[in-house]
Amino acid sequence: MNAANQEIKRGRKYGQVLNGAWEVFRRDGFEGASVDDIARESGVSKATLYSYFPDKRLLFLEVAKGECCRQATESSDLIPCKAAPVTVLTGAATRMVDFFLSDFGMRVFRICVAESDRFPELGREFYRNGPALARARLVDYFHEAEARGELRITDKDLAADQFAELCKADLFSRLVFGIGGPISAEDRARVITGAVETFLARYGVAG
Amino acid sequence: MNAANQEIKRGRKYGQVLNGAWEVFRRDGFEGASVDDIARESGVSKATLYSYFPDKRLLFLEVAKGECCRQATESSDLIPCKAAPVTVLTGAATRMVDFFLSDFGMRVFRICVAESDRFPELGREFYRNGPALARARLVDYFHEAEARGELRITDKDLAADQFAELCKADLFSRLVFGIGGPISAEDRARVITGAVETFLARYGVAG
DNA sequence: GAAAAGTTGAACTGCCCGGTTCATCTTTTC
DNA sequence: GAAAAGATGAACCGGGCAGTTCAACTTTTC
Questions:
Q1: HSE on the CB side for A202, CA within 13 Å?
Q2: Strand C positions within 7 A of protein Cβ atoms
Q3: Nearest-neighbour CA in chain B from A11: distance (Å)
């Protein structure tokens, strides 16, 4: 992470541009964001912006990549522990729900979906740095728990995907399609405990 | 459904425009579609198009609404039967997977997500005419099956959402984010049977 | 068969936006 | 403190697109 390893960045206000651009992109999407807006938001002239990035596309890609990395590193601290599966899974479910209900999660998802034709690599990059990590961590935990005789799972990849999917029940559609009012703490609790119970009904070891 | 109940439509080529517009919208999205393209695709002059619809937005809304209705009516034929839950649920899962893996399902989803800021009512309309119907049908079936002693479900709404969500495991991310190659019949079968098994592990009646 | 209703194509307006240019100003560097 | 590097802003270009207009043409209607 020394200062000279990036071939693109030169000049003092590189960071400002990335921050401002991310702000505008996540507010207006790729097409919706105008370069003038980004320059204004960044507190930087358009000429300066274009001295950093050859075009809007590249700027967007750089912003998205950086943001994904940031998110990935800062959420990778919590690791599976030896508590009872109910506890561990409830914790994991809570974090997942927190993430995709967050402003950030939702906006990134929206942009990925909307712009996936223009930027096929964007969706992959996001998945790799987000959902894929969570999934890998879950699978690791499954192995440990199975070794301890707490779970019994043959297809661990599928199980991890199912668990993640169960956490989205109801909540996700409501958010994506704008159904129902704001999501209350009770709504979240209902889905989380429901997910854990269903998951354990299938993969938990009786007793 | 008489011919004169629509206040907007007048003129011979109304249908052509709707068809052509849907074609272009689903290919290029809302922003990506140009009105000239739509007119060309519809085999209609721009002037004619604008004589039907005051602007692009209204045209899009009308197209989307119509398409949702069409989809809703033509998929509402299959109803829950008295077969064993495994059979019924497998059938339901297959239909759900078929739908959201279809070109249509994916495109509508993409447009809804991308355009939900511009058209909040669009997402709601789609959900009402699509997922909500499937959910209601599932809940109905749950009632019947429970009366027959085949299932035991307290929160039937949540169960329906969970089932739908389980059907998306793995497949959905792959499609949305463009991960992995094309989805094979084996992939689908794996997810479908997995969904049914997990669901029945939780809500099925032992024996 | 003539009037009315509908359709056409093409040109035109106005706007927004991505990207460029440049003379001038500020900061860094030594 | 002067040269070099970076930043400025405002003007400008070119292109694409939504929406308008209109005189000529086709179809419907009675």
A1: 25
A2: 5-11, 16-23, 27-28
A3: 34
B4 Cβ nearer than 7 Å to chain D strand: no
Within-domain flag for B26: yes
**Does B49 lie in the same domain as B89?**
no
A10 touches strand D (CB under 7 A): yes
Q: Is the pLDDT of residue A8 over 70?
A: no
Q: Are B166 and B199 in contact (CB under 8 A)?
A: yes
Nearest nucleotide (C1') to the CA of residue B50? D19
Does some domain include residue B8? no
- Domain harbouring B142, CATH code: 1.10.357.10
Can you give the CATH number for the domain in which B42 is found? 1.10.10.60
Percent of chain B with pLDDT over 90: 56
Distance of CA A85 to CAs A92, A157, A205, B8, B92, Å? 10, 17, 10, 59, 31
- Compute the average pLDDT of residues A25-35: 90
AA identity, residue B126: F
A161, A173, A198 ranked by CB distance to B169: nearest = A161
Residue B74 predicted with pLDDT over 80: no
Q: Are residues B54 and B146 in the same domain?
A: no
Are the beta carbons of B29 and B115 closer than 8 angstroms?
yes
Domain check: are A92 and A142 in the same one?
yes
Query: Does residue B178 form part of some domain?
Result: yes
Q: What is the mean pLDDT of residues A156-168?
A: 98
* SS3 state of residue A91: helix
Choose among B161, B149, B165, B159: nearest CA to B205. Answer: B149
- Asked whether residue B127 carries a pLDDT value surpassing 50, the answer given is yes
B55 and B142 inside one domain: no
**Shortest CA distance to A15 belongs to which of A57, A70, A96, A85?**
A70
**How would you classify residue B169: left for phi > 0, otherwise alpha for psi between -120 and 50, otherwise beta?**
beta
How many domains, chain A?
A: 2
- Tell me, yes or no, whether A7 lies in a domain: no
Give CA separation, A173 vs A142, B109, B135, in Å. 28, 11, 12
Whether residues B178 and A123 touch (CB distance < 8 A) is answered with yes
- Residue range of the domain that includes A194: 75-203
DSSP 3-state of B85: helix
**Nearest 5°: phi and psi at A66?**
-60, -45
Under 8 Å between Cβ of B130 and B68:
yes
B69: closest CA among B110, B107, B126? B126
